[in-house]
Amino acid sequence: MDTDLTFEQLVRDHQAMVFRTLLRLTGSREHVDDLAQDVFLRLYRALPSFRGESLITTYLYRIAVNVAQDEWKRRRRDDRAHVSLSDETSAWEERLAHPDRNAEQQLEEREFQQTVEEQLQLLSQIERTILILYHQEERSYEQISYALGMPIGTVRTHLHRGRKKLREAIQQRQTKERRTECQTNQ
Amino acid sequence: MSDESMNSKLVNKAADDEQDLRILRALETAPRTEIPADFAARVASRLPAGRRPVSLTPTHYGQNAVFLGMILTFVVLIALTVHNGRHAAFGLAESLLLTQFVVLTVWVSVRRYSV
């Protein structure tokens, strides 16, 4: 990258990525604005030592993950339950709305998305982070490895384990729901 | 294995694959974000006064130093080869420099920038 640009422009270029990553990492819309500001201020402070060995986006992911970790620690201290992404707005509704699908299918997809979101928040921090960076942000193993400061092999292991846990948790929940449904129908 | 159990296995496998696809689709769906219109301006206003434009131009000082070192090592290697045979120390120095040259070449070719 051979350009000099104002910091405001840099923020504008990367704000969407920082917001959506923080939103899913923390599982809450609460304070996301403040956390995103923190990410960019940390980036500004770190820029003099930025050696250009990585892309600025990879560097930002690294900072965003650190900020999310601090937020998890703060929550643990405050012992507060997280707010679900769907509490304030139906975030998934518009994205999942598809003209060809009927209302029932859309509702089912929305519920499934919500289940995935809830189960994602129950995974360990590292597994959740890797799943988000890999699937949502489409980062490579190498970029995730740099962002988290861990070997590529470990990233692969956590990704595989995270997917497996998520799948099992969702299956368990669905089985439980089906059983409850059967009992209420009897 | 009976046809029935094989069919049931195939059905289960298809259901698992479908479930995996649904999970992946859900993971790939990014949440909708609501970014305040003045967010970038607000962040910029919190920066210390008298800030300079942000430079993201990679300097690669270390990388350049490594290339310079490789060229120098190569030149010295050639010089030692020309003078080879005069003293045993030349042979030892040559081996050390050759090792260094090979290590640097491997390191430079393996190392990736712009992760």
TrEMBL record, chain A:
InterPro entries: RNA_pol_sigma-70-like, RNA_pol_sigma-70_dom, RNA_pol_sigma70_r2, RNA_pol_sigma70_r4_t2, RNA_pol_sigma_r2, RNA_pol_sigma_r3/r4-like, WH-like_DNA-bd_sf
Domain of life where this protein originates: Bacteria
Xref: PANTHER family: RNA POLYMERASE ECF-TYPE SIGMA FACTO, RNA POLYMERASE SIGMA FACTOR
Record protein name field: RNA polymerase sigma-70 factor (ECF subfamily)
Family membership noted in the UniProt record: Belongs to the sigma-70 factor family. ECF subfamily.
Residue ranges constituting the RNA polymerase sigma-70 region domain according to the UniProt record: 10-77
Record's signal peptide: none
GO molecular function, one term: sigma factor activity
Pfam families in alphabetical order: Sigma70_r2, Sigma70_r4_2
UniProt keyword terms in alphabetical order: Sigma factor, Transcription, Transcription regulation
Gene3D superfamilies with a match to the protein in the record: 1.10.1740.10, Winged helix-like DNA-binding domain superfamily/Winged helix DNA-binding domain
Species this chain originates from: Tunturiibacter gelidiferens
GO biological process assignments: DNA-templated transcription initiation
UniProtKB/TrEMBL annotation, chain B:
Protein name in UniProt: Uncharacterized protein
Transmembrane spans: 61-82, 88-110
Organism: Tunturiibacter gelidiferens
Keyword terms: Membrane, Transmembrane, Transmembrane helix
Keyword Transmembrane applies: yes
